[in-house]
Design brief:
There is one protein chain. The protein is α+β, with helices and mostly antiparallel strands. It folds into 2 domains: 30 residues; 179 residues, Sandwich (Immunoglobulin-like). Helices cover 22% and strands 24% of the residues. It contains 4 helices and 10 strands, in the order H-E-E-E-E-E-E-H-H-E-E-E-E-H. The strands form 3 sheets. It has a 4-stranded antiparallel sheet with strand order 1-2-3-8, with no helix packed on it. It has a 4-stranded antiparallel sheet with strand order 6-5-9-10. A two-stranded antiparallel sheet has the order 4-7. The relative contact order is 0.21.
């Protein structure tokens, strides 16, 4: 009897030892696998240059489950940003500029990783541009895991090679803005071809996302 109990406890301990790392790993951030940009409802495709850019807002609790950080609670809107180059030459996005222009004409730019850390460490801190170059220090309340999640999720590509797609998240500070998505556009400039010539600007209507059928 005692031997049987001992074996049972050993089996349970082994099961727990296997389950624990699996459970912890399941909570690690995994960036979504990007499809070609034209497959997202909200996109702009430049047929002549064979470049498409798409935006997929993560504006619902269901979609936001991929993050351990509750960005919405801190006033941030994550937007999955996708750039597809179907041409035969690389495209430079090193000087790309992105603006989310809301329905009430507020102009928002993506928040840097440093400003995300700052807000998560101190919810009272604003990430909106400050005309005074006053340095700030992160208080350290943000965990290493959260910092890694932000770092690995952000869009960081500088170029898009031929017939490839680059993707990542942009985070917009929408705190205090009611309904930032209806009527909004995302304007993108600074995309250049292999010769350094800038392509015509891209404009993505967010309403295409909001009005898409079976929107999660």
């Amino acid at each position: 009897m005692q031997s049987s109990r001992r074996r049972t406890w050993i089996v349970l301990a082994l099961c727990f030892a296997v389950w624990l790392p699996l459970g912890l790993a399941a909570k690690n951030f995994v960036k979504p696998v990007a499809r070609a940009a034209i497959n997202y409802p909200a996109h702009d495709f430049h047929r002549d240059e064979k470049v498409a850019i798409a935006a997929d807002p993560y504006d619902t609790p269901e979609k936001a489950k991929i993050f351990s950080v509750d960005f919405a609670a801190h006033g941030f809107l994550p937007v999955f940003f996708i750039v597809t180059n179907d041409g035969d030459q690389p495209v430079s996005i090193a000087n790309m500029e992105i603006k989310l222009i809301t329905g009430n004409r507020s102009k928002l730019t993506p928040t840097s990783a440093e400003d995300l850390y700052r807000r998560l460490s101190d919810p009272q801190v604003s990430t909106r541009p400050n005309p005074l170059p006053i340095p700030h220090k992160v208080k350290g309340a943000i965990s290493k895991k959260e910092m890694d999640e932000i770092e690995s999720s952000q869009f960081a590509a500088k170029a898009v090679e031929p017939h490839t797609t680059q993707s990542g998240f942009l985070f917009f500070d929408v705190g205090g803005i009611s309904s930032p998505l209806p009527g909004a556009n995302i304007d993108i400039t600074g995309v250049a071809d292999a010769k350094g010539s800038e392509l015509m600007y891209f404009e993505i209507s967010v309403d295409k996302y909001l009005n898409a059928p079976q929107n999660p």
